Amino acid sequence: MTDASFETRPETQDAQFGDYFALLKPRVMTLVVFTAFVGLLAAPVGVHPFLGFCAVLFIALGGGASGALNMWYDSDIDAVMKRTAKRPIPAGKVTRDEALALGLTLSAFAVVFLGLATNWLAGGLLAFTIFFYVVIYTMWLKRLTPQNIVIGGAAGAFPPMIGWAAATGEISTASVLMFCLTFLWTPPHFWALALFVRMDYDNATVPMLTVTHGRRATRTHILVYTILLAAFAIGLGFTQVGGPLYLAVALLLNALFLKGAFDIWRRDEAASEADNFRAEKKFFKLSLLYLFAHFGAILVEAGLSRFGGL
Ligand code: HEM
Ligand SMILES: CC(C)=CCC/C(C)=C/CC/C(C)=C/COP(=O)(O)OP(=O)(O)O
To answer: Which one of the ligands is nearest to 285 CA?
Structure first.
């Protein structure tokens, strides 16, 4: 990241609101925010709707701020990868300094206001999550080890715990279980993507598993994590977090996810590259539906157990 380019913006390139908004990685953050929202509503306490709205908004702003800080630090990598080359900094729309200023300001704002609006456990967890994603994952592990996302994935797993803490002021077994679900889900989610954008990471010399250990090893890792994830996700159905509806969703989606992971694993490297990429892309898309559906089911179960008796 130490490259000094992107410090200034070409005069013809005025930044628009949309460019600053893109720094917040809005598409990725939708699912992050949804898991935080579920954590907040699944907690066994009533939260005033306005307070709940503010809590989710501040978590979303904190998540977005961490995205801007990630783009500030990674602008050199983003510039050489096809998938990320059009991001506001490499595209010359926003300068690195602007992204840094936006990321720091929004982070401070989100943490302080979440703390004031709810409690300081939630504010502290949000600050720690931003720190983990930006410093531990982006600045340290991402360029150091192929296990970068296994460890760094913890950052993405905190939001349901933050939501729960915002509602209750506590960390509980249920919120730790939601953390574990997202933590185990992250490696298959990300490695599927890394398989079909492998050349990107090669070019950027980022030590993703696909680059350091190759496609075969990555596929095996995906399969192993998917098996672990399935065991955990189905087991969750028998805890306070789950219930019959959750279990039905988990059984269906884990069967599909296991099938997808197995399909990728058994593929012949010599087979058509287009076919391989199609299967990997399909699995990546399924990973998004997977997490959304599990957290959706957790939300419905919480609603049923709270209001079901009415
Ligand atoms: C360290 C952990 C993670 C890594 C390394 C990772 C990596 C990625 C990457 C590189 C993309 C493509 C982004 C792009 O097109 O700009 C992506 C997409 C996505 N990720 Fe993750 N991810 C992680 C964790 C998560 C978590 C925890 C969530 C949600 C709870 C999530 C939700 C999404 C979504 C929704 C997309 C699709 C965005 C779109 O529609 O383009 N990711 N992820
Ligand atoms: C509340 C809060 C602070 C939430 C943060 C949640 C979080 C850590 C999400 C991770 C999302 C993500 C896109 C990682 C991308 O990895 P990358 O940065 O290596 O991907 P890139 O190559 O697309 O930049």
So the answer is: 1
